[in-house]
Hints:
The structure is a single chain. The termini are far apart. The protein is 38% helix and 13% strand. The protein has one domain (3-336): Arginase, Chain A (3-Layer(aba) Sandwich), CATH 3.40.800.20. Strands 2-1-3-8-7-4-5-6 form an 8-stranded parallel β-sheet, with helices on both faces. By secondary structure, the chain is of the alpha/beta class. The model has no long low-confidence stretch (mean pLDDT 97).
Amino acid sequence: xxxxxxxxTQHTAHTHQHPxxxxxxxxxxxxxxxxxxxxxxxxxxxxxxDVTIERVHPxxxxxxxxxxAEAANVAPQLDGDTYILPGTAKAAHIAASGxxxxxxxMVHGNPACALVRPPGHHATATTAMGFCFYNNVAIAARxxxxxxxxxxxxxxxxxVHHGNGTADIFAADPDILYISSHGWPxxxxxxxxxxxxxxxxxxxxxNIPMPAQSGDQSFMQxxxxxxxxxxxxxxxxxxxxxxxxxxxxxxxxxxxxxxVDGYLDICTLIKDAAVRLCQGRWCAVLEGGYSLRALAACTxxxxxxxxxxxxxxxRLGSKPSDPHRADAVINWLVHNHPLxxxx
Length: 343
């Protein structure tokens, strides 16, 4: 069954000379179009209601984004990292809509990937930051619950930066498991292993801060020993992948050494968990990735994986790394996280 790729030209209204620019989506689509064996369906994103956005972001935040966009001139900075333009508010709404469209397709048994920008996982309920305005994957998770009755949602974030916004939004929610493997230390400085959620949600946050220069073997150990067992114990109704590809060794903003093959090995584990635990319900929402060639290759490989197509060769190759670099954090989590420790 072809993978459905949800995208829209609306994202081009939010672009500038910046690592997060419209060429990111273009690079992905070009790589996929150049592969005659990669069967996909390109679907234009259908906009969701304001109510859907407001399941995560209060109306005051949505109004603030609209006001900031309307007042924008030439790429004014919201902060040191994040620019806003007159078309940003609409682009952000469409990006969140694409994530919800992917959930809709997933529920109907179709492999789906939201190729959207601006990304979302740094946006908290009330704050735009880190290139992000609305938290796309969080909105998709609430959409899965409210529209499709999927109560327990696991979000697996493979971006090299910690998704502080997603973690904050769901910190106290026991029905949303947020798992993040991220380079340490990197922006935004959150995601310590000791942060496991709050109140009723304690244990529903799983942070895996990977030491700088961690590569394929370290990440696979973390996913085999930590992520997969946590998913098995949580037993989700669906898995949403925050698909950031900036942990690749070629990424200018990352500090890790994953290869394309390493990323696809991780995604294969997540797909297998979805098949085993939740009737194959999983979908992907694009986050970061700022080396265009690595982003294109990783996303192309993910789309083939989702469509049950054979893996193609990793033309970018790998970089040497210490296979035991993450041993300490993995061992600590195995013995201390509520979803992992033995009683």
